[in-house]
Amino acid sequence: MIEFEKVTFVHQSGVKALQDVNLRIRKGEMVSIVGENGAGKTTLVKHIIGLLKPTEGRVNVFGKDTRDASTAQLSRMVGVAFQNPDHQLFCETVEEEIAFGLKNFGFSPDVIEKRINWALGFFGLEKYRKNPPITLSGGEKKRLTLACILAWDPEVIILDEPTVGQDAIQKEKLSEIVRMLNSMGKTVVIVSHDIEFLWPMQPRVVVMSSGKIVADGEASSVMNDSYLLEKARVTQPQLIRLYNSMKRKPQRPFRDVFDAERHIMEALSVRTG
Predict the structure, then answer these.
(1) What's the mean pLDDT when you consider all of the chain?
(2) Dihedral sign, CA of 43, 179, 238, 215?
């Protein structure tokens, strides 16, 4: 569905941001892209919707070569919430912001109204319906960009640093949204430094460093490779570090805090029983 074939991208300044990238993302996958600042993560995402075109190689999205497709055509299939929401918000009110994409994609007025109401309610933005987006907090702007995207229901949802500015409750809600979308067969790609947010969802993990993909696999395998992560300057999840520090381990690393708590309580009950 999304395929990078030997993609290299060189900025006008001469900086090589991607180097010989090969990547295939299949329909219905949940994929996280991790790596330090400047690793090439956002550059890679911009190639998926045609904002950037490969200097060498080819990017195919739903069978379309992105060099031959407009960003508008690709955006109907692929929705992206970028790291800085101010780069995506430009309408006078919150409801107009959500309606903008729906109108451009040809939805009928009654459908547009229903989807606006759903998006405002789902993301807790109803009270800001008539407010200018510029007056929202950073976290609220993040939720608005996601509301705009989900309103038109694309096949692929890309989230670039979605947890920045979000409190613990909103992070949990976002995690539930990602799981829900994935269970519905949507393809979800998450670019994030927030390893603790990613780990419980157990996505496929793609590690980038200096414009290259240096690892690609299941979270349980990639995130347990401390040498690889240290070299790519990616933090290992705390639950894996806890797991590796234990003398008596379960068969696999803890998936979430509840999993860890359950194992520890069972171990204590055996000792005191």
Answers:
(1) 91
(2) negative
